[in-house]
Amino acid sequence: MQHSPEKILSDLIRIDSTNPPGNETAVAQYLKDLFSSVGVEGEVIEPEKGRGSFIARVGSGPRKILYLSHSDVVPAGEGWDFDPFSGEIKDGVVYGRGALDCKDLMAAQVSAAMELIKEGAPLKGELIIAATADEEKGGMLGTSYLLEHYPEKLKADFAVNEGADQPVLKNGKILYFLQVGEKGTAWSTIKASGKSGHGSVPTLADNAVVKISRAVTRLNNYWAENVLIPEVEKLFKDLAGLFGLDKNLIKPSEIDNFLEQLPLEKNFVEALRSMTRMTVSPNMIKGGTKTNIVPDYCEASVDIRIMPGQDCEYVESQLRPVIGKDVEIEFDEYQPATFTSSEEPYYKLMEEITLKMAGSEAICLPVISAGSTDSKFLRAAGIPSYGVGHMDKNFDGEARTTVHGRNERIDVASLNFKTAFLKQLARRYLA
Ligand SMILES: [Zn+2]
């Protein structure tokens, strides 16, 4: 019981590592003590006081797997039906902030490692457990810091991290996902200048707010060209097979038609749509100072998410004609998309184990995420990385909406499923 995933998860939830401020060192120290109790000396690396990450290594040999998770959580906010940091285990469910993002994965990774240690069967390679800080605020003090200062500590043949959607049940099948890529970001500001004047005679002035609102409307109506990367094409073909849809629709010009026909929840269909193109969302406008002054300056912030192979130059070439020549575009934050091929043997091994564990009704599919995780740093450092969201087939579908929301929780059966999957994967790869 002592090292069961639910007990470890419950302990982890009770350590409040809300970021900001983080306080991840408390999590790292807990893990250090836990590993120490089974004879493994892990280490805590602290770039700033309280912001520690934990790393432990189990086994030795040339092969290496990295099990990565993040130790911080987002603020709980108001309106919970229970204490977000109680870590209560009741009726087969563990309750609290981090139960799905991503202390569950951490507990499963750690518990799998503990079981392997206790079984004493020597591993012919290294299982690296890393619980890193700061992911929810960009990861600069966590995975990014470690890769910059101690790259050899995370170096592995491949990594398993968070990032995949939870399974979907449909037509008697259960669809498991392996995340193989993440879209990039090209966050931008569009800016317009004009000529100020009195609001009572606007025809003498040149209104910058009007210029930006026109550009914002056009951006909102803009649809980027569709792009089908091989993994998404494979995903769509498998879905077409499952639902008896015409595979000829799986080409860039017909994607939206194909998506309309998929008998899946809107949330999921829109997630699929976002895997097929750049998205552009103008989300903030600043301009003007007073009701009776025509503004001479206005700007808007635009959240742009790009596909593998797209960059700032691509974004500018697409959006320049849309915003018009009296509006400028500036890039504030750029992160290219990252990607690991599903043709790698690691993917095949994970797929094989998933299907074996979940039975004949299971299907395993590659996905790319619109959001990002620490996998972007690993992939950029040349470490193939996969996101898993494996759950038991009877998991509570309602709970999936509690990530970053209220009443976060996970069922113990799903935790056990994750743990068993990770244990088998380590055993198989490091055998
Ligand atoms: Zn997370």
Helix/strand class = alpha+beta
Largest sheet: 10 strands, mixed
Q: How much of the polypeptide forms β-strand, as a percent range? A: 15-25%
Sequence stretches where pLDDT stays below 50 over 5 or more residues:
none
Number of strands: 19
The shape, in one word, is: globular
**Which percent range fits the helix content?**
25-40%
Cofactors, ions and other ligands in the entry: zinc ion
Distance between the termini: 26 Å
In DSSP terms, counting alpha (H) and pi (I) runs of 4 or more, how many helices? 13
> What is the arithmetic mean of pLDDT?
95
> Rg to the nearest angstrom?
24 Å
If you had to describe this structure to a student in words, what would you say it looks like?
The chain is an alpha+beta fold. It is 34% helix and 24% strand. Strands 1, 2, 3, 6, 7, 8, 9, 16, 17 and 18 form a ten-stranded mixed β-sheet that branches. A hairpin with a 2-residue loop joins strand 4 and strand 5. Bound molecules: zinc ion.
Outline the secondary-structure elements.
Blueprint: H1 5-14, H2 24-36, E1 43-45, E2 53-58, E3 63-70, E4 89-90, E5 93-95, H3 103-119, E6 125-132, H4 143-149, H5 151-154, E7 158-161, E8 168-170, E9 173-182, E10 184-193, E11 197-198, H6 208-221, H7 230-243, H8 255-261, H9 266-274, E12 279-287, E13 293-294, E14 297-306, H10 312-323, E15 328-335, E16 338-339, H11 345-358, E17 362-369, H12 375-380, E18 385-388, E19 409-411, H13 412-429
Parallel strand pairs: 3-6, 3-7, 7-18, 9-17
Antiparallel strand pairs: 1-2, 2-6, 4-5, 5-19, 8-9, 9-16, 9-18, 10-14, 10-15, 11-13, 12-14
Helix pairs in contact: 1-3, 3-13, 11-13
Bound molecules: zinc ion.
